[in-house]
Structure prediction request, 373 residues.
Amino acid sequence: MIENLVFFFVGYISLLFLFLGIGLRMQWKKELSYLDSEITVQLADITVIIPFRNEEKRISDLLNSILNSNKLPAKIIFVDDHSDDATVSLIKNTLGNLAFEILHAPIGGNGKKIALRLGISKTQTPFFLTLDADISFKKNYFEQLEKLSSADLYILPVVLIAKRWFEHFFEVDLLLVNALNTGLCGLKRPILASGANLLVRKAAFEKFDCHDTHAHIPSGDDIYLLRDFRNAKADIRVFTQPDSQVTTETPQSLSEFIHQRLRWIAKTGDVKDHLSTSLAVSQLLLTVGFFSLVFYLLIHQYFQVAFFVFALKVGVDMILLLPFFLRFRRIKAWLSLPIYQLLFPFYNLFILAALPFFTPIWKGRKAGVGERN
Prediction:
């Protein structure tokens, strides 16, 4: 048993240090080079595209962020995906005379990807920036974009913000994924992107986009766009400077959280990224192996050893993850890591059991991979 414990921790710590110790630092060094260029993206070259559907109760933070911005891009395009609430009126009344336009998705054209492509078709600038309708950002957000050197795709940070104590566990889940994605980008390449904060060169999108291969899936514009750009060997960059982040609320309930994760996992599996799949399998094996060891110790009444083993793993995780959590000032989420670690295997088992039988619902529509409009 001692040999198994030593073998596990040597392998686990080595992998974690590779991704979160070496990978993160390599990535952050890359990011400094993105800011060291005489040729940068200009706000006059950016059109913001914001698809929305029934966001009357959640779009105010975004509209206020726009109003309070130090600078604004060339144009902002809102695309209404068949809303039946007062979102359109709220946008018009709040933004007044700012340079914005509201488009309406055609009848029969449902889904975020259709809405986005309508906005892109009306874009006349070299770059477009996709944002979600339920986000907010700092006053200098757009100024930060002006510091970036030109690339085909920038994956920019999205951070969940908890309002109630238990929502910090929802924060942790996304922060862990983003930390891994950032470290992977430092070592090799990213495996994830979020359409809530993406800067895209329009000419590259028109050249590399393979919408026909996933048009039957109403959501997932971000992960499929990343796949298409990756297959085309485009210039893809991850940028995690805090001033370039957007924030949004965590899911408001466990049910909403599970729906969200099921959508993400289903789309990630459909993309068939071998690196992502290999990492997911490795994580599952490590989790099963670790908790099997802990369970064995508890069964044989080695309670102190079991506690020490669990505390050692949590301690290693917290030490190596601290720089990433500090970068986005998510200390309360970081402090919830021990409890998250206890809940993680049960959460994983539930997700795996639910995935084959459950069709997630998003914005009142089925969002499963197999659903066709």
In short: The chain has two domains: 2-23+275-366, 27-252.
